[in-house]
Design goal:
The protein has helices spanning about 25-35, 70-75, 90-105, 125-130, 130-145, 160-170, 180-185, 200-205, 210-215, 220-225, 230-235, 270-290, 320-335, 355-360, 370-385, 390-400, and strands at about 15-20, 40-45, 55, 80-85, 110-115, 115-120, 150-155, 175, 250-265, 290-300, 305-320, 340-355, 405-414. By secondary structure, the protein is an alpha+beta fold. It folds into 3 domains: about 15-180, Reverse transcriptase/Diguanylate cyclase domain (Alpha-Beta Plaits, 2-Layer Sandwich), CATH 3.30.70; about 185-235, 5' to 3' exonuclease, C-terminal subdomain (DNA polymerase, domain 1); about 250-414, Dna Ligase, domain 1, CATH 3.30.1490.100. The strands form 3 sheets. A 5-stranded mixed β-sheet has the order 5-6-1-7-8.
Length: about 425
Amino acid sequence: MTGAVPAGPHAAADPTIIHIDMDAFYASVEQRDHPALRGRPVIVGGHARRGVVLAASYEVRPFGVKSAMSMVEALRRAPDATVVPPRFAAYSEASEALFSILGSVTPLVEPLSLDEAFLDVGASRALFGDAATIASRLRARIARELDLPASAGVATVKFVAKIASDVAKPNGMRVVPGPETQAFLAPLPVGRLWGVGRKTEEVLRRLGLHTIGALGARDPEWLERQVPGSRGLWELAQGIDPRAVVPDRAAKSLGTEDTFEEDCAADPSVLGPHIHAQALRLARRLRRAGVRGRVVQLKIKTASFALSTRRLTLAQPTDDGQTLYRVAMTLLERSPLRAQVRLTGVSVQGLSMTEAAALELFAPPAPSRAEKLNAALDRITARFGDTAVGTADTVSFAAAGTRVTGDDDREREL
């Protein structure tokens, strides 16, 4: 039985939702900063034997290389590709510049990752033109100011805008007017629907529903009987997506971790400089975000991939790197390790805004000596980079040539 397909609630509306997605972000930053890599197949990844692909340039993708693939498999498929280690400080800097550009046209920016966001420009059209014009100008600014490629999707709802930007890649833009939403979705494979994983896709295909249009044309009650919980899929197939763009989603935790190129001895004197550098890096991220954390967690992964976490709750939240380091080392020394260590990480949970960020009614107390020092260090690193200043142990450990296969700065969202 087939049912009438109602028009989506936004079918007659002009598009106001933009999805901006940077193209092969990490790889593009590397090609920008190293012109010799432009036009060449580039893989951003870790150790050739034990790492994974973090980003693959579009030049290497025809070989079947993609993100999250093992480096062993990636190099088997593309042995002539150039492999570069990740530089998360460079990616974070580019991301901050990107979101500054996006925020210049609307406060309604919903970050999805370092290089991807939704924007609602409904209230910005009087100043900057329609959504398509805004998206085009944003892409031009990103190219001009950051020298990076970006794709954009413009639609009446988030789901369709996201698919439109995917279709537009690389370095393109696709506008889907409201009345054309269902026609745009109809020929796409059913696996494009949010919430359709491999198993659900197999079930839908067994029912003869290979495309979004085929699913949307069926009676929703029949579909629900065949695939319980599929009402939401049917609505998406009609272009119905009521979710609003939600800016500045609160982070649940912040953390940083490193995977070592060679396993380290389970000795505090060996692991200490790594943990110290991680704590300082994490503290800078906390201060940039205007938050402090109350729960400090140390993460350890051994050479056998056994994972352990230890945590301690502080009396007062902190954004001070030395405090984070001392707590992390206390956690390490409380539970001595015997196996070689592959990875360490420091994170904080129980985040709260600092007094300055919260804009308290009463003036905040005068900054402490540690806060003044941290502010000075932040100004130095903002101007000269994260490696411009460090403690004696972290500088010595860096000078000794100790290497990591990749650092990972994490933000967990609610």
